[in-house]
Amino acid sequence: MEVGRLPLELWRLILSYLQLPELGRCSSVSRTWRELVVSLDKTRWRQLYLGSPHACRRPPNWPLRPELEPPSWRESLRRALLANRVWRRHDSRWSTVDVTGCLYGPFFRKRPECRSAWVGPGGDYESLRVALASVPPYSRVFLLPGVYEEQSEVVLRAPVEIVGQGSLGQVALLVSFEQQCPTVRLCNLVLMQAWFTPIIYKTSVGHVQMDTCNLENGQVQVSAPATCHLRFCSFSQAGLHLHAVALAAVENCEFSGSEGASLTVEGFPSTDHNWAYEHLAASLRADLLAQSCGLLEADTALDWLNLGFDKKSESVQSDKTAGVPRYDHNGTIRKCMNHDGDTLTPAVSEGAFLKKNSSGRDTEQDEDYKEFGHLITSLPVGSLMTGAGASLSMEEVRPRSLEEELRTEKEARLLVRLILGCVVQRCLFRDGRGGVLSSAHAHVRLQHNTFRHLHQAIRCLQDAKVLVFRNEIHHCRASGVFLRLSAGGVIAENDIHSNGEAAIDIRKAANPLVLV
Asked: Which parts of the sequence belong to the F-box domain (predicted)?
C-alpha cells in the first residue's frame, strides 16, 4: 500500500510527529488517510495518551491490570478527553450544542478563552487562596511542584480547574476544600488532610471531578444534589462518603488501608438533579455500551444499559394502570389485589418510590413500573410441581447467567433498572477493614471490581439495593457479600473464593436475586 507515492512505513514515521489536532484533520481527508491514522494506535496514539496533560497519567487498565494494554489507545484517549470536558458544560459557551437559535451560530460563535494562572515560586501567585480569589471563572490554575498548606478552609466560589505540574506526587496540598460553585475539577494532585479537620473535600452543590489524584488520611464528602466523578484516583487510609447522591461515578480507583468502609453510600438517590446529571449519565451509558459489546444481545442490552437516566419515558395507556406493581418504603415487592379480589402482581405503596408531580402525572419511575408490572407474576401457594413432574435432570436445572435471566425474567429486568445512584467499576479495594457499605435505602452498582485482603468486602444494610456483577472477592476475613435488614439486589457472575466465612451471607429479611 502506498499513499502519495510514498511507502506506508514512511508515512507512519511522518505522522508520528503530528499532534492531536493535525491527526484529526488528516483522518478527515479520505478513508485511506483515516485508516493510515488509525494504524498508529500502538505507537503515536499510545504516546499521546501517556503524554497528554489533559488525559490520565495512568494506564487505562489501572489499577486492576496496569500491564495489560487496552484494545485501542486511540479510543481510550478519546474517552478520557470527553470525560475531562464534562465539568465545563455548565457554561453554555463550552457546550457543543448551539443555544442561540441562530442558523450560523455554530460557525461564528466565539469560544471562551481558558485563562491560566501559575502558583508557586516564580509564578503569578504565591498562595493558592489568593489565586483562587483573583482568577476569573473557568480558569485553569497550575500548581508548580511543592507543598501547599492553608491554615483555614478554602471555599471555592467560582468554577475552576486546579492542575498539578510535573509527575504525580510532586504537588501536595494540605488543604480542606468546600465547594460552593457549580463545577470544579482537580487533576494530578496529592490531597492530604489539614491539621484542623479530617475532611479533605466536601460539597453539597454542583459537580466535582477528580482525575489522577492521591488522597491520604482524610475524607471526601458529597451530599445531594451534588454529583461527583472520580477517575484513576488512589485513596490511602482515606474514604469517600456519599449521602443521597442522585448519580456518582467511581472508575479505576484504588482504595487501601482504610480503618472503616472505604466507600460509604447512604440514603435513597435524590430526585433533585443538578446540571451535570445528564452529561454524567451519557458518559456512563457510553462506557457501559462499550463493555456490553459481545456480552448482551440487543433485546437485553437496552434494559441493562437503561440505568434510569432517561428523563422521558414511553407513554402508557390508562387501561394498563390496573395491577401496577407497588413497592413499600423499603423497596420490597408485595402482592396486591385487583377490583375482583384476585391476586395480581406486586404493587407499590405511596411513598419513597411513587410520587406525583404537581400536574398530577406519574413520575418516570412509575412509568417503568406500569410498563413491566403486568409481566411480573408470582406463583400461587401450592403450585410447586410434585410427584413425577418434579423429577428433573441435572441439565435442566443448570444455573442461568445474567444474560439469560434478563432475557427471560422480567422481574430481574425491573430490579436491574431500579438500582441506580452510585456506579463503581474497575476499582481495587485491598488491605483494609472495609470495602463498600450501602445502607438506608441507598443504591449501588458494583461492576468488574476486585476486593481482596479486607475484613468485610461488601455490606448492604437497611433496605439498600446493590448490583454486584462480575467482581472478584477473595481472601477476606469475613463474608464476601453481607446482606441484612431487608437489603436486596442482584448478585451475578462473581468470583468469590478463599474467604474466612460465607461467600454470600443473607439474613434478617434480606432477599437478593443470586445468579451463579
From this structure: 1-48
Q: How does strand 234-236 pair with strand 488-492?
A: unpaired
* Distance, CA of 470 to CA of 448 (rounded, Å): 5
Q: Does residue 243 contact residue 224 with C-beta atoms inside 8 Å?
A: yes
Confidence of residue 141 (pLDDT cuts 50, 70, 90): very high
Residue pointed to by grid coordinates 451519557: 282
Q: Tell me what the mean pLDDT of segment 34-63 comes to.
A: 86
| Interval 191-212 mean pLDDT | 95
Assign 3-class secondary structure to 229-262: EEECCEEECCEEEEECCCCEEEECCEEECCCCEE
Cα–Cα distance for residue pair 173/339, rounded to 1 Å:
65
Q: What's the mean pLDDT when you consider all of the chain?
A: 79
Q: How far apart are CA 135 and CA 148, in angstroms?
A: 18
Neighbours of 395 (CB within 10 A): 6
- Reference 435, options 228, 286, 259; nearest CA is 259
Q: Are 307 and 463 in contact (CB under 8 A)?
A: no
pTM to 2 decimal places = 0.77
| Residue 33: CB atoms within 10 Å | 17
Residue 492's DSSP bridge partners are: 469, 515
In the numeric block, which cell numbers belong to residue 9? 512505513
> What does the block give as the cell for 275?
446540571
Better pLDDT: 99 or 235: 235
pLDDT in tens, 244-278: 999 999 999 999 999 999 999 999 999 989 999 98
Three-state secondary structure string covering 389-422: HHCCCCCCCCCCCHHHHHHHCHHHHHHHHHCCCE
Cα–Cα nearest to 491, from 458, 457, 514, 460: 514
**Three cell numbers at 105?**
451560530
CA distance 186 to 397: 51
Report helix, strand or coil for 301.
helix
Please write down the HEC assignment for all residues of 18-80: CCHHHHHHHHCCCHHHHHHHHCCHHHHHHHHHHHCCCCCCCCCCCCCCCCCCCCCHHHHHHHH
Q: Look at the chain and count its residues.
A: 516
Residue that has been written with the C-alpha cell 439498600 in this structure: 464
Over residues 285-308, mean pLDDT: 54
Cα gap 189→177, rounded to integer Å? 13
